[in-house]
Design brief:
Layout (H helix, E strand, L loop, with lengths): L14 H8 L15 E8 L4 E2 L12 E2 L2 E2 L5 E2 L3 E6 L5 E5 L15 E8 L9 E9 L28 E6 L5 E5 L4 E5 L10 E2 L23 H14 L7 E4 L4 E2 L31 E2 H6 L5 E2 L5 H10 L3 E4 L2 H10 L24 E4 L12 H9 L4 E8 L5 E2 L12 E2 L19 H7 E2 L17 H10 L10 H16 L9 H10 L1 E6 L3 H5 L13 H14 L6 E5 L2 H10 L5 E5 L19 E2 L2 E2 L27 E6 L5 E6 L10 E8 L4 E10 L6 E7 L4 E7 L10 E7 L8 E7 L3 E2 L18 E2 L8 E6 L2 E5 L20 E7 L8
C-alpha cells in the first residue's frame, strides 16, 4: 500500500493509470461537460463475500437474515465505512464494527481490505471488485488499558466489540488513523494495523476535567461489563469451552426498564447518594440486562428474597435468580406470565417443574433463610422447593479436602462446639485451612438459627439429610459437609422419593424428576486482596491459594462426572481463568459486586470485587481493568450511542485530523454536529472546533473528507432504506472561522444521479434505483473519495446481512456498490 500522505487526491496525470488498473473504459475527461452529477462507473462486490478468518456472526441471535444464514464460516467482507486511494489504482476500504452493535460483533475482526474495482463504464469493464488482501487491527504490545475481546491472546486482534471504527485516514508517515464511535476515540496504527499508542480520548471543552463519552465508553462502569465478559468468553473458547460464562451481579446494580419498570436507581449503601465515607457516589444502574443477554450471556442475579422484586426481575428478563427463600422463588416463577396472555406458568414444564432452559432458580447456600446455610438440610430444602440449581460455597481444609463453607472461619455466629464448651468470641474462630476435615466435623456443628422466623434446624424436616448423615457417620446432619456430600445427597434424595419412604409423598414424582437434572453452582471463597497486601495480619493467608482452590474443587466435579451440570463461580477471576484453562468442560460464573470497605477489617464484607485498591485495580479481577465509581454520575454521557466519530478528514498538509461526530452532543441542539481539530504531531486536540448543521431531513452524516485547505465533502442522510424519496446527499463544505458553522452547498443528490449511458443497467427482480436516473437507496452510505477534480467515488455500507435497499423485490441483502460520479463543475484541488 502507498505511504503517500495524499494518495487519496490524484491529479489528472494519474487518471489513465487508475483507469487501466481498474479495467474500465475511459471516464469523462476534465474537458468534457455534464450538466448534472452523472454516473460514469459502477462496480459491485456481492453481499456474500468472505475472507479467511475465524467463524463470525455467532451472536446475531438468529440463523437466517434476508435469505442468508448465520453464523458464517469465515469473515464477511462488508460494512465499508472509509476509503483511501492507492497509487496503483487499488483502494483501501475499512470495515466497521461488523454487525452494528457492541453486543453482537465480538467475532468480527476489524480489518482494512485492499480492493481493485473493474468499473463498468460507457467503454467497457465488467463491474466486478476483486479483494486482494487485508490487514487486521491488533494490539500485541498491550497498549489498550481496558478489556478487549482477545485480551488473553498473543496477537490481541481487535474486534467490533472493542471499537466501532467508522473513519480512516493515512498520515504523511504512512501510519493509519481511525475514528471510533464507542469512545469516541482516535486509534493510531502502523501500516500493518498494529496499534502504536493507547486510544486517544476526546476531552470535553465545555466541562473542564471531563471527557466526551458515549454509553459504551470503557472508562465508565456502564460500558465495561460486556467487555470483560467478552474477554473471559474468548479465553474459555481458546481452551475448548463450548458454553459461554455466566454473568452474575448483585441485583441492585442492574439496569432495566419496559417490563421490569425500574424507574430509578436502587438506594444502596455502597452506590447511593450517601455511601460509606470515602466512597464516591455513583449510579447503581450499571449492568444492562438486555445488553448482556443480547451479547450471549445468561444474567443470573443475587441475592433476592422479596417476592415482588423477584417478579420485577422476571419481567426484566433476567436468566435466573439466586435466593435465600426458594419457596418464594418457586411461587414467583409459578405465577409469572411471561407472554402476558393472562395465563401464568410460562416458565414451567408440562409436569409443573421450572424449565431450566427458560429460567434458572437457584437456592442460595441451599436455602439459607429456611435452614442453616450450606448444610445438608439447607440443600434438601432447596430440592423440596424444586430449585433448578443448588448454589453453595467452598473452601479447602488443612488436609486438602473441598468443603462447603462461605466463610474462611468456623464462625461463632453460625456454629457451636460439639462438646458444649463456649464458642461465642470471634477471637476463638479458627480458619478452615488450619484444620483437617476430621477435626472440623468432630468438633463443630453449624446449626445456629438467626435469620428470621422461617429458619429452622429441626432435623425432622430433613429426613434425607438425617439418613445420609447417619450413613456417613456424622454426629449431626449439620456438621460441615464435604463438597462430595452435595452430590451424594442428590443421589440419596432421588432414592428416597422413588423407592424409599418418601415415594408416597404427593410431590414425589416432581422431586425425583427435578433432582435427576438439578445443577450445582459452587463458589470458590478466596480473598486475593488480603493475600496480596501484607498490611493486615488479620486477613493474611486466610485460605489456600487460588490454584489449589480451583483444582481441588474441579477435581471433585470431574470425579463425579458432573462437568455438564456443575458450574464454578467466583468473585476471584483468577480462579475462573484457571478453571477455563485446565477444566474447560466446566462452565464458569463471574460474580460482580460492590460493597464498602470498612476501616474495621473484622467487619469488612470482602465478598466483592469491583473496588479499586490504593488507586489500582483490585486483584480480584485478574488484571482486567474496572473503572471503579466512574459512571454517568461523575462523567455524563454527552455522546449518544452510535454517535461518535463517523467521519474524519485529514488536512491537505497532513498535519491535522478533523473527526466529526455522527450525532449531536447532549446539551446541543438536535441538528448541530461537532468537528474537532486534532494535531498529529503533538497528539493533542487544539481546542479549535467547527459546527455542522444537518439539513431538516438529515439525521446522520456518513463521511467527511477535505480536498483542499478549507473545503471538503460530507455525506448526509436520513434513516430510510429502499425508498426512492429518501434523503441521501453529498454537501461541499468550507471550514471558515473556528467556532462557527461551516458553509455547506449541495454537491450531489445521491437519489438523482443521471445515467444516460445505461451504466447501471435496467431494473429486474424488483431492484430499484437503476436506469436513466440512478439512485442509492441505502440506509448507510459512508464512503466518499476524490478520484480527480471532476470525479468522485462513493460506496455504501451494506450492513450485511441486514440492510435491504436495492433488492426490494427479492429482499436480499445489499451488495457493496462502488460508484464513480462525474461532477458538472470541477473541484479546486490543492
Amino acid at each position: 500500500m502507498s505511504a503517500h500522505p495524499r494518495a487519496g487526491l490524484f491529479g489528472l496525470a494519474l487518471l489513465p493509470l487508475l483507469l487501466a488498473a481498474c479495467g474500465g473504459g475511459e471516464l469523462q475527461t476534465p474537458t468534457s461537460s455534464v450538466t448534472a452529477p452523472t454516473l460514469s462507473g459502477r462496480a459491485i462486490l456481492p453481499a456474500a463475500t468472505f475472507a479467511d478468518g475465524p467463524i463470525s456472526g455467532q451472536y446475531l441471535g438468529g440463523t437466517l437474515f434476508n435469505g442468508h444464514s448465520a453464523p458464517f464460516a469465515k469473515q464477511p467482507v462488508q460494512g465499508f465505512s472509509a476509503i483511501l486511494k492507492n497509487a496503483d489504482g487499488s483502494f483501501l476500504v475499512m470495515a466497521d464494527n461488523g454487525y452494528g452493535s457492541i453486543e453482537n460483533s465480538a467475532d468480527f475482526n476489524l480489518r482494512v481490505y485492499t480492493i481493485r474495482p473493474n468499473f463498468k463504464t460507457a467503454n467497457g469493464g465488467d463491474g466486478s471488485i476483486k479483494t486482494e488482501k487485508f490487514i487486521e487491527l491488533k494490539d500485541p504490545n498491550k497498549l489498550i488499558p481496558f478489556a478487549i475481546t482477545n485480551q488473553f491472546s498473543k496477537e490481541r486482534v481487535l474486534t467490533g466489540a472493542d471499537f466501532d471504527i467508522e473513519s480512516m485516514q493515512r498520515a504523511p508517515d504512512g501510519t493509519l488513523w481511525f475514528g471510533d464511535e464507542f469512545g469516541p476515540f482516535l486509534l493510531h496504527t502502523d501500516a500493518n494495523g498494529v496499534l502504536l499508542e493507547a486510544p486517544i480520548k476526546l476531552m470535553d471543552s465545555e466541562n473542564a476535567g471531563q471527557e466526551i463519552r458515549s454509553p459504551q465508553n470503557p472508562y465508565s462502569e456502564e460500558g465495561s461489563a460486556v467487555r470483560i465478559m467478552n474477554a473471559v468468553r474468548a479465553h474459555a473458547q481458546s481452551f475448548g469451552a463450548k458454553r459461554a460464562p455466566v454473568f452474575s451481579p448483585y441485583f441492585v446494580q442492574l439496569k432495566y426498564d419496559a417490563n421490569g419498570v425500574k424507574s430509578s436507581p436502587d438506594a444502596h449503601y455502597a452506590r447511593g447518594k450517601n455511601p460509606q465515607p470515602g466512597l464516591t457516589p455513583a449510579t447503581s444502574e450499571i449492568f444492562d440486562v438486555a445488553s448482556l443477554k443480547s451479547a450471549g450471556y445468561q444474567v443470573v442475579t443475587w441475592t433476592v428474597n422479596d417476592k415482588a422484586k423477584m417478579t420485577e426481575l422476571l419481567k426484566a428478563g433476567v436468566s435466573g435468580i439466586i435466593s435465600d427463600r426458594p419457596d418464594l422463588l418457586l411461587a414467583a416463577v409459578k405465577e409469572f406470565d411471561a407472554n402476558k396472555d393472562g395465563v401464568p406458568g410460562d416458565y414451567l414444564t408440562k409436569d409443573g417443574l421450572i424449565d431450566p432452559a427458560k429460567f434458572d432458580a437457584q437456592g442460595h447456600r441451599g436455602a439459607r433463610n429456611l435452614r442453616p446455610e450450606n448444610t445438608l438440610p439447607a440443600f434438601e430444602a432447596a430440592l423440596d422447593n424444586l430449585m433448578t440449581t443448588l448454589e453453595t460455597d467452598s473452601g479447602i481444609t488443612k488436609d486438602g479436602v473441598s468443603v462447603l463453607k462461605h466463610d474462611p472461619y468456623i464462625e461463632t455466629q453460625k456454629c457451636r462446639r460439639t462438646d458444649g464448651t463456649p464458642y461465642n468470641d470471634i477471637k476463638q474462630e479458627v480458619l478452615i485451612k488450619d484444620l483437617t476435615l476430621a477435626q472440623i466435623q468432630a468438633d463443630y456443628i453449624c446449626d445456629k438459627v438467626f435469620r428470621g422466623a422461617d429458619q429452622s434446624n429441626d432435623v425432622a424436616l430433613s429426613p434425607v439429610s438425617a439418613a445420609l448423615a447417619t450413613t456417613k457417620g456424622y454426629t449431626s446432619p449439620y456438621v460441615l459437609p464435604k463438597t462430595q456430600d452435595i452430590f451424594d445427597l442428590v443421589t440419596a434424595y432421588i432414592d428416597y422419593y422413588s423407592t424409599g419412604a418418601g415415594k408416597t409423598h404427593p410431590d414425589a414424582a416432581k422431586r425425583v424428576a427435578n433432582a435427576k437434572t438439578v445443577r450445582f453452582n459452587i463458589e470458590t471463597k478466596i480473598n486475593p486482596r488480603s493475600d496480596k497486601d501484607n498490611h493486615d495480619k488479620v486477613y493474611k493467608d486466610r485460605t489456600v491459594g487460588f490454584e489449589q482452590m480451583a483444582d481441588t474443587l474441579a477435581k471433585v466435579i470431574v470425579d463425579n462426572k458432573m462437568e455438564a451440570r456443575a458450574d464454578i463461580q467466583s468473585f476471584d477471576f483468577r480462579t475462573l481463568l484457571r478453571v477455563q484453562e485446565k477444566f474447560p468442560a466446566i462452565r464458569t460464573v463471574y460474580l460482580f459486586g460492590d460493597f464498602p470497605i470498612y476501616p474495621d477489617p473484622a467487619n469488612t464484607d470482602d465478598g466483592t470485587n469491583m473496588q479499586d485498591e490504593n488507586g489500582k485495580n483490585t486483584p480480584w479481577m485478574a488484571g482486567l481493568y474496572w473503572p471503579y465509581r466512574s459512571t454517568a454520575t461523575s462523567n455524563p454521557f454527552r455522546a449518544k450511542k452510535s454517535g461518535g466519530f463517523e467521519g474524519m478528514a485529514l488536512s491537505s498538509d497532513g498535519s491535522k485530523l478533523y473527526p466529526l461526530l455522527e450525532q449531536p452532543l447532549t446539551g446541543h441542539d438536535d441538528k448541530t454536529l461537532l468537528i474537532s481539530e486534532f494535531d498529529i504531531a503533538s497528539r493533542k486536540y487544539t481546542g479549535k472546533t467547527f459546527k455542522y448543521k444537518l439539513d431538516a431531513k438529515g439525521t446522520n452524516i456518513g463521511d467527511f473528507i477535505l480536498f483542499n485547505a478549507e473545503e471538503g465533502i460530507i455525506i448526509e442522510r436520513d434513516n430510510s432504506t429502499g425508498d426512492l424519496t429518501g434523503f441521501k446527499k453529498l454537501f461541499k463544505i468550507k471550514l471558515g472561522k473556528a467556532g462557527d458553522y461551516v458553509e455547506k452547498t449541495e454537491l450531489v443528490n445521491l437519489m438523482d444521479i443521471k445515467d444516460p449511458k445505461g451504466i447501471s443497467g435496467t431494473a429486474s427482480n424488483g431492484d430499484i434505483g437503476l436506469g436513466g436516473v440512478f439512485a442509492m437507496p441505502f440506509v448507510t452510505i459512508e464512503d466518499v473519495v476524490v478520484i480527480d477534480e471532476n470525479t468522485l467515488g462513493v460506496l455504501n455500507d451494506n450492513n450485511y446481512p441486514f440492510s435491504v435497499g436495492r433488492h426490494m423485490g427479492t429482499k436480499l441483502p445489499d451488495d457493496n456498490e462502488f460508484m464513480l460520479i462525474t461532477l458538472p463543475s470541477p473541484l479546486k484541488l490543492k
